[in-house]
């Protein structure tokens, strides 16, 4: 058993999950990533485990392999399969999150453990490029953070969520580096840039740290303030870019 704190990343084989895994590793944590597919090029220092499916049995097998109580669990999984998107989103998003949290609560959480569920602005807004299943799952995840914050609070487990919009990560850097796209984000965002995966990782790290010891049941917006800008103002800014 390591003396270091342990962070379990669900869906940490790529994207924001992998960036978060590297963030915790760089800050001195033991890091385990559990996902259905292993990365093509595993990152040094991160232990990668296969999570067969969303069942409680599969969750327990992963937790049994950790070798020590888990101090933080970060949910960053995403449905990437073909077929029925409704069943897939609910299984990958809601069912896996529920079963992993409830199984971990059966003796696998360390004292003062934390859970962070990374969600999407689609919980509040219409994302035209995403199906209804995606919207329903993200809205449900936000409410699950509230539910488990209350049901697990007496056990010392804090549960919070993160709401984010478009995030630039290693897999989509080329797309978001397009000059026109960069100009739009620089114009509409109060911070003058788009969200980086490291911004989400940093927010998760804060929520699982001692500085957030009295924060639970909260869904933190990490969107650079874009959600605070009126629709009329956004349209005017974009119109000015195009003229």
Give a short overview.
It is built from eight helices and nine strands. The chain is an alpha/beta fold and 243 residues long. Strand 4 (70-75), helix 3 and strand 5 form a beta-alpha-beta unit.
Q: What string gives the helices and strands in order?
A: EHEEHEHEHEEHHEHEH
Q: How is the biggest beta sheet arranged? A: 7 strands, parallel
First-last Cα distance: 61 Å
Would you identify the regions where 5 or more consecutive residues have pLDDT less than 50?
none
Q: How many alpha or pi helices?
A: 8
Work out the strand percent. 15-25%
Which fold does the CATH topology refer to? Rossmann fold
The helix/strand class is alpha/beta
Number of E-type strands: 9
CATH class: Alpha Beta
Which SSEs are present, and which pair or pack?
Layout: E1 6-10, H1 15-26, E2 30-35, E3 46-50, H2 56-64, E4 70-75, H3 85-104, E5 109-118, H4 132-151, E6 158-164, E7 167-168, H5 173-176, H6 179-188, E8 195-196, H7 197-207, E9 219-222, H8 231-242
Describe the 3D structure:
The termini are far apart. Helix 1 packs across helix 7 and helix 3 runs parallel beside helix 4. The radius of gyration is 18 Å and the shape is globular. The strands form two sheets. It has a seven-stranded parallel beta sheet, with helices on both faces. The model has no long low-confidence stretch (mean pLDDT 94). The protein is built from eight helices and nine strands. The chain has 243 residues and is α/β, with parallel strands linked by helices. It has one domain: 3-Layer(aba) Sandwich (Rossmann fold).
């Amino acid at each position: 058993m390591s003396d270091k704190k342990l962070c379990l990343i669900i869906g940490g084989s790529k994207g924001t999950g992998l960036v978060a895994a590297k963030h915790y590793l760089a800050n001195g944590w033991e890091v385990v990533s559990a996902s259905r597919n292993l990365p093509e090029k595993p990152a040094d220092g991160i232990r990668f485990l296969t999570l067969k499916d969303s069942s409680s049995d599969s969750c327990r097998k992963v937790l049994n392999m950790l070798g020590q109580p888990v101090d933080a669990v970060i949910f960053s999984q995403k449905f990437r399969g073909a077929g029925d998107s409704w069943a897939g989103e609910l299984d990958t998003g809601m069912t896996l999150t529920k079963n992993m949290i409830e199984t971990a609560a059966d003796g696998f959480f360390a004292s003062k453990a934390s859970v962070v569920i990374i969600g999407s602005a689609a919980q509040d807004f219409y994302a035209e490029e995403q199906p209804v299943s995606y919207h329903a799952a993200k809205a449900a995840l936000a409410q699950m953070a509230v539910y488990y914050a209350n049901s697990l609070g007496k056990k010392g487990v804090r549960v919070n969520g993160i709401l984010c919009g478009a995030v630039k990560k290693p897999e989509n850097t080329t797309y978001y580096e397009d000059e026109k796209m960069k100009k739009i984000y620089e114009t509409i965002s109060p911070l003058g840039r788009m969200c980086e995966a490291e911004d989400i990782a940093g927010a998760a790290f804060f929520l699982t740290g001692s500085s957030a010891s009295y924060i639970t049941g909260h869904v933190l917006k990490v969107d650079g303030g874009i959600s605070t800008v009126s629709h009329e103002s956004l349209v005017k800014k974009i119109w000015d870019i195009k003229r």
